[in-house]
């Protein structure tokens, strides 16, 4: 009897997942996905050094939904690859649009293990870049989630190296939260490490979190990587990070993710007056 109940529950779960995937597929076909952009700054110079593109679902009934509401559903489905390619193309289109307005700003996008480990990933990426002739080396950065399961690190390393030849830079995202931190750091030729927000949030009051942040910053120096702090919520966090040797930051304290149309106005305000100027060098 219990096995029958279990089988019924399993069937219901599978059916629900199928329906969720189909809903996401329909949303993709109906152009309901959009990119929001969150700035990254150099706290020492007060300059914007780039933007992270973050996908959102502009749901017709529920409004703007974060990636946690839909990406986990398709993490093992080929739809994730289609969506990932759309993100790259949308970011490239945005680069072109901003460039016409005099805004030159590199954009980083999150890349899933499923997409990165496709045998034709580099070939498809090459075709995408060829269809966007305005693309310049260094304008696109791929963020690899540190908790991602990369099946064959040697193959991924080769893919990263080939992407470098195309002008793409890489970062390890959410560094310190998974079991593969040191393996990825040692074997993947990335340019950046992003310290996970969970360590940044309480670093001012929690000695252990502060020690972890210090350790990651030292690791980055040892392996010649540039470190970026995620989840920076206050100027006090920024001040402490600077004393520890971390200049680059991203978080709600600087700006929440925003639609592309809002960024030029935000940038203009930032350039003329922002409270983070207090941390910059007087020179």
CATH fold descriptor of the largest domain: TIM Barrel
The fraction of residues in strands falls at: 15-25%
Query: Using DSSP, what is the number of strands?
Result: 10
The chain-level mean pLDDT equals 90
Shape call: globular
The CATH class label of the largest domain is Alpha Beta
- Low-pLDDT segments, ≥5 res: none
Kindly, what is the distance between the CA atoms of the first and last residues, rounded to a whole number of angstroms? 76 Å
Helix content: 40-55%
> What is the CATH H-level superfamily of the largest domain?
EAL domain
Biggest sheet, spatial arrangement of strands: 1-2-4-5-6-7-8-9
From the alpha carbons, calculate the radius of gyration and give it in angstroms: 20 Å
What is the CATH architecture term of the largest domain?
Answer: Alpha-Beta Barrel
Question: Structural class per helix/strand content?
Answer: alpha/beta
**How do the helices and strands follow one another from N- to C-terminus?**
HEEEHEHHEHEHEHHEHEEH
Number of domains: 2
Given the structure, what is the number of helices?
10
Q: What can be said about the biggest beta sheet?
A: 8 strands, mixed, barrel
Index terms:
2 domains, single chain, 10 helices, eight-stranded mixed beta barrel, alpha/beta
Structural write-up:
Helix 4 (121-130) runs parallel beside helix 5 (153-166). 44% of the residues lie in helices and 20% in strands. The chain has helices spanning 2-29, 79-100, 113-116, 121-130, 153-166, 181-187, 197-200, 207-222, 235-244, 263-272; strands at residues 33-42, 47-59, 63-65, 107-111, 140-145, 169-175, 192-195, 226-229, 248-249, 258-259. The protein starts with a helix and ends in an 11-residue tail after the last helix. A hairpin with a 3-residue loop joins strand 2 (47-59) and strand 3. It is built from ten helices and ten strands. The model has no long low-confidence stretch (mean pLDDT 90). It has 283 residues and is α/β, with parallel strands linked by helices. It has two domains: 1-30; 34-279, TIM Barrel (Alpha-Beta Barrel), CATH 3.20.20. The protein is globular and about 50 Å long. Residues 17-271 form the EAL domain. This is Signal transduction protein. It comes from Paraglaciecola psychrophila 170. GO terms for molecular function: cyclic-guanylate-specific phosphodiesterase activity.
